[in-house]
Task: structure prediction
Amino acid sequence: MDKLKFSTVFMIISFFATAQYVYAQGDVAQGEAEFVVCAVCHGVNGEGNATLNSPRISGMEPYYTVRQLQYFRDGLRAPDASDIYGTQMRAISMTLEDDQVLQDLAAYIGTLDSPPSAATIVGADINAGKASYALCQACHAPDGTGNEALNTPSLVGQHDWYVERQIMNYRDSIRGTSPQDIFGAQMRPMVGTLASDEAVTNVAAYIKTLQ
Ligand code: HEC
Ligand code: HEC
Result:
């Protein structure tokens, strides 16, 4: 085998080795044990907690959960204190030793269920929000359930105050600015289409109506 072929084969093997590692199956029982600390803020069923600014994570897609935990741990999300709420989550993520723990947690979180959160935004223009959402649905799906092939999370059942805050975080360069954050980089130009705080609130209120 000449040098070139050897390096090609090596590349292929290391690609599969990495891919296998990243997508290793999580152990639900292990994840349940690890989740005890998460429940303090996110609730025992992952329902979220407005007082603690913690989003709903019940049933979250493992590919998205793992990525967010890696992002927090590696400083791609909440890289500095301007992300007040993300900073709390970053501190927790840094206690998670290895990627297997993240897989286990994500597998367990994926099994959780809780009722969709109640709407908290009042007086928003839902129709205007719906019109803005026409662009979002290309990636997040018309019914808001997300699309694994496009790396988007489901927005259904999520707290409206959290959705509103994330959109503003993308807009205000608090989330998605790290050069390595290739997924957040897709979101930033999209929220640029929402011209005002009101437009952000309207789209968050519309997303809350999705089932
Ligand atoms: C001290 C409270 C606290 C604890 C404990 C905590 N979190 Fe969080 N978590 C938060 C907050 C606050 C946010 C929202 C950050 C933001 O607004 O950007 C968050 C966000 C997240 C997100 C991102 C959700 C999304 O939609 O992008 C995930 C995933 C998550 N937490 C998982 C976990 C897991 C797993 C654990 C346990 C290992 C945990 N959290 C422990 C407070 C906490
Ligand atoms: C080009 C595809 C694309 C479009 C269009 C798009 N998004 Fe996203 N969005 C993404 C991706 C990818 C992520 C996940 C980023 C990550 O993994 O960190 C995301 C994440 C989000 C999040 C964070 C969810 C969470 O749990 O933290 C919200 C909220 C969101 N998008 C709302 C919207 C809204 C509102 C629109 C329309 C104005 C929109 N998106 C349009 C690709 C898109």
